[in-house]
Structure formats: structure tokens, C-alpha cells
Amino acid sequence: MHGLDFDVAHMLAGGLVLVSLMMLYQDRLYALINTLALHAFILALSVAWQAYIHNAPHLYITAAIALGFKALIVPAALRNIVFRLGIHREIETVVGIGVTMLVGIGLVALSLEVMLPVTTRADPLAREDIALALSVVLIGLLMMVTRRNAVSQVAGFMSLENGIVLAATGAQGMPLVVEISVAFSVLIAFIVIGIFLFRIRERFDTVDVGALDSFRGEHE
Amino acid sequence: MNMLGFDPLAGILLIPVVAAGLLAVLPGYVIPARINVLASLLSFGCALLLLAHRSESGSYLLVDDLNIVFIVLNTFVGFTTAAFSASYIAHEIETGRLTLGFLRFYHAMYQVMMFGMNLALVANNIGLMWVAVELATLTTVVMVGIYRTHEAIEAAWKYFILGSVGIALALFGTILVYLAARPVLGEGPGAMIWTVLVTRASGFDPALLNVAFVFLLLGYGTKVGLAPLHAWLPDAHAEGPTPISAVLSGLLLNVALYALLRFKILLAANPDVIAPGPLMIILGLLSLIFAAFMLYRRRDIKRMFAYSSIEHMGIIVFAFGMAGPLGNFAGLLQMTMHSLTKSAIFFSVGHVTQAKGTQRIADITGLTESHPVLGACLVLAVVAIAGLPPFGVFMSEFLIVSSTFEREPLLAAAVVFGLLIGFGALMLRVGGLAFGTPRGRSEPVHASYLPIFAHLTLVLIAGLYLPPAVVTWFQHVATLLDTGGVGR
Question: Is A172 on the interface with B (CB under 8 A)?
Fold first, then answer.
């Protein structure tokens, strides 16, 4: 493989992990949404670069979806929700940021440790991509676990999906059907989330999932 | 090739789509409910035709011995649930819990969900299968939240978050399978077609397949409701409309299980990978014992039976984990029996909660006195699910325990322990529900007993006498699950 091609792809995938880690310590919602947009932007660059070096034009569609939908439209909609709910000043983390960052770094190490040995037969680029994608997925999960607010859980879920798209595009020649469906399912997922946020807003004054937990139908 | 001149495989996919489109625009509730039943009946008819005459498998769709069991079961329970739903919904409209607008949405979503599940079952492409499972999940999320109460929204949100995480992990696993297949099969669609994958699986990188299976087990296992990942299941069952509880327990869990089995076969075809059995045995046992204990503390009737579903999925996954011809056979039988019995329970419970106006177990007493037929149905169904003879669940559980005992007596003891704990809880509760003096609100119900009778009769027949044709059919599938041969 061409040296520069590999280096740039590697850098972009690594950048995605870096931004994932950045998301972990954003405790203001607007800042979190901006970081999410940056995340999607880097994903778009990474996918476009894959399309370029592998001469796979259909990947440009995936890149365009990442750029237009995930980096622009969704963050705008989320900002709108945050604004209308009046929760932009809220600070919410369950676990301290220092601990979360350490766990995040641990997860990156873990995914490299898990993925690199088992992918020795794959080509180097796919190997790096899949390992870094797993870190992004795990950090996204971590984020969903440590945040209580519905908007930040959505952000965590979106970053998780970004990691999966990175894995799907990194696996060279994976059929188009899947890529489109991934992007499409994100769209559907988002619509569903939107509906839920609306309903939650309609019924209560809070989108704090912790507040929802108070009623389980189990207590007397 | 077909005397009717159409492909039944297309039927089970197209009928729900057309019906969904139609139901989305039709006003009222009487006619849409009937169309819903009719469409489900037609799908079931197509599934039976498919049983008699297999369609050709292509690169996207596949019909083989394994999935035909699931398809017939899926469309049958889909049909009976639609019939139950018609009477259930009429009551919800009368009491004003659902408006006509939401009902239109409900019926359309019901058919979209049937489409999603049927597609997941017949998909030959592992990517397509994933998309279909995701579609079915999303539609059920929306339906769980349809009452829009505090609790319903919490349940739907929890289901959505956990379901999406599960489904995301499953996709990651699917990508890893593709990555393992690519060096052998080359780039492109070929490396995602299940029938191609399974014939060439022996050449795949075993280490990569191992990691992939762990992701798939966790991902689809979340949808099956296995123990550490089950948190969404009781809430989703308790807060959604009861017909949805019935299809969730009876069908959607099976569809996720089916996806898991497909990948298990893939692993079985490669001699160098870890055996998937022990992992499935551990998760299955954990679910069984955990859910059995949780049954005691439940105060909500639908929530209790949701835990019973976790318990049974645990037993089924355990049986498939034990594998071997007998283990697989028992697992398949248990799965079929559980689907039929559990949906019959939810049909009865749906009418009971409507009659009593509550889901609290403590407020429901003396059903056999106030509603004799309904009470009797519920008692019979609970007796069946608890695993008492002469019902089919007893047969399959007996098979699982006895076949396990031959190979691993200690594991068999653990299974029996879990089963007895669960049995005790169910008997304790059903006594209070069905007998004693009726208290509280009690309204007459216009129940549709036919679906309940149909399911219980089938379970009873299976317990008394399994037709040899069914036995050979299930045995064939059981060997297929072990050897990984496609249509061999």
C-alpha cells in the first residue's frame, strides 16, 4: 500500500478516537453537540479518503450522508431541542471526568489488544480501522452509561454509530447495501428518538432519564 | 413451478407491506382490524404453501429446513394475535385509552413489524438480516410507547437504548464476519451470503470468527433477553398493548434467537474456532435461574410473565448450547411450545386486565368465579408454561433435562433447580389470581377465546402425541444445526 494513503487514513481514524475521548469530558450540552458535529465531520473525511484511495465511488455517498446529516442537520436539531427545553446550562455527569477519561483510555487499549492479534490476516489498513472503530464504539457505550440526560445519550449513541460506519467502510468492498442501510437506519433511529424526545417533553418538564427511572411500576 | 402461479415466499413479504400501506390510510377500527386479521391469515397461508413447496433460494432470500419452522410459527402466532388484537382494541377504543388516529398507526405498524420479522427469517444475506431485525425492533419500540403514559415512555426509551446498543454490537459482529470471509471469498456481496459463507467457513480465520461471535452473542443476545442484558424486556412487556407483549414474547425473541443460531451454525462449520456451546450454556443458565428468582417479587401480572419469558429463553439457549441431536431437538420443541403457550397467556392476561381494570396481581382474585372461561384458560395456560404434564412444555423440558443428565449431571441439576424455583413462583401466583373470592372492579369482557383455545389445543396435542412427520422434520433441523450442512 502507498505510504501516504495509509498514513492519512490512519490519522483520520485516530482523530475519530481522539474526538470520542474529547466528547467524554464535555459537560455542557452545547459543547457536547459541537464535538459530536466534529466527530461526524472527521468521519466524513475518513470515509471520503477511503473512497478515494480504494477507488470506490459509492463510499462518497456514505461520506456525504455523514457530512450533511450527521455533522449538520442532527446537531442543529439537537441544539434546537436543548434550547427549547431550556437545559443548555445543565451540567451532568454521573462519574467524575477524570475517572471517565481513564476508563476511556483503558477501553482504547483494550480494543487494540483484542482486535490487532486476531486480524493478522487482514490488510494493514482494515486492521487499524477495525481496531480504532472498536474503541470508538466502546467509548460511545461508555458515554451512554455515564450520562443521565437523554440528549447526551443520543450523542453517545450517534458516536457509537459513527464507529460502526468506520468499521464498515474500513472493511474493504463491503457491499453497498449495508452502507446505505447503516446510514438509513441512523436516520430512522433519529426520527424515533425525535418522537420520543417530543413525547417526553410534552409529558414532563425534563428529559432526564434518571427522573424516568423513579417510576418502575414495581413499587407500591 | 408452482400450480398457483405465484411465489409464496414473495407472499409472506409482500402481503404485510401492502396491508401496512392500506391500514395506514383506512379510517375507523372495525374494518382495519379485520383487514389486519385477513392479511395475517393470508401470510400464514403463504407460509403453509412454502412448507409444502419450497421456493428457490437466491442470493438474498433463503428457505431451508431451519427457517421454515420459524416462518410457520411466526405467521401462525401473527395471525392469532391479530385476531386477539381485534377484540382487545375494540375495548381500548371504548374506554378511550387509544384514539382512532393512534389505532391506524398501530395497525400499520403491526404489519410492518410482521414484514420485518418475516424478512429477518428468510434473509440469506447477513447484512439484510441485520437490517430486518433492526426494522422489527424499531416498530416494536414505537408500539410499546403507544399509550404515551409516563411508564410507557420510560419503557420504550429503555427498550430503544438497550435494543440499539445490542443491534449495534450485532452489526459490528456482522462486519467482523465479513472481514473474516473476505480473504477466502474475495470482495463484494458474495462474502455476506449465508449459504456461501457456511460452505466455505472452514477456511476463515478462526480468531476473527471467535471475536465476531462474542459480539453477535452479546448483540442478538440482548434482543433475546439473556440475563445480564435483559433489562428492557419486562418494562417493554408490561407497558405496551398486550397484543404487542404477545408478539414480543412469542415471536421477536425467537427471531433474534434465529439470527444467533445462524451464526452458531457458521461457527460449527469451522473446526478451529471455540465451541459456542459453553458460552450459550452459561448465559442460558444464568437467565433461567435469575428469572426464576425474580418471578417471586413481581407485583404486575404482565411483568411477571415477561420474567417467565426470560426464564424460558434461558432454557432454550441452554438447550441449543448443549447441542447434539437431542439438545437441538428439545430446544426447537421448547421454543415452539413457549411461543404458543406464552402468547396464549398474554391473550388471557390481556382480557383479564381489561375486565379488572388493573395489572396489579394483588387486585386480581377469584377469576374462575367472576370470569369462569377466562379464568380456566389462564390457569390451564399457566399450568402449561410451568411445565406440568400433559402439555407440550413438559415434554420439551423433560427432554432437555434428561438429555443433559446423560452428559453433564451437574448442569442438569442446575436446570432442574431453576425450573422448580420458577414453578413454585407461578403456582403461588396463579392460586391467588384464579381462586378465592373476587374483589374489586369486574366487568364482562367480549373476549375472543378462539386464539387461546387454538394455542392451548396445539400445546396439549404436542404433549400427548407428536405426529411422526413433525418429529422427523424437527430431527432433520436438529442435525442441520450441528453439522452446518445446507440442504444436504
Answer: yes
